[in-house]
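just leaving the lab so this will be short. what follows is a protein written twice so to speak, once as letters and once as structure tokens for the fold. can you read through it and tell me how you think this chain folds. thanks a lot i owe you, the record is right below.

___
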Amino acid sequence: MTDISKEQYLELTPAVFLKDGYFSENGNPIPELETIYALAVARQLFENELAPQELSAFIEAIKQTIVLYDEAFPRRLINTLDEAREIVSHMYKKPLNLGLFHWVEECAARVSSEDDYNQFLGHAKAVIRHYIPLAALSA
């Protein structure tokens, strides 16, 4: 396995790893979305001092509110983000972590179908799996 520096993790953003979308050229899901890319995002969110519960709450708020919109993707998800941000900000009585919002916003911009949305959710769950132990070890 190749070692990756902190700087390389911080450069590995959705703009880089989602430049061609959520699927490979042959239509298969990109497995790195749940491994190295998810770990890179977890490291980036850690640098933004994100509370683990805020991460989980925001993803859950997205899942709960997306059903309220019937527009086509990506507009459907983008509208959902604003409402989910308001819910979580109200819940924690503080603005949503900007690093978290920017990561999800970048991912949302590449969602153009229900299949893409499901891949986004898989990526988000993987980020949570990587982030929680990272945050716990630093406490």
Remarks:
- The chain has one domain: 31-138.
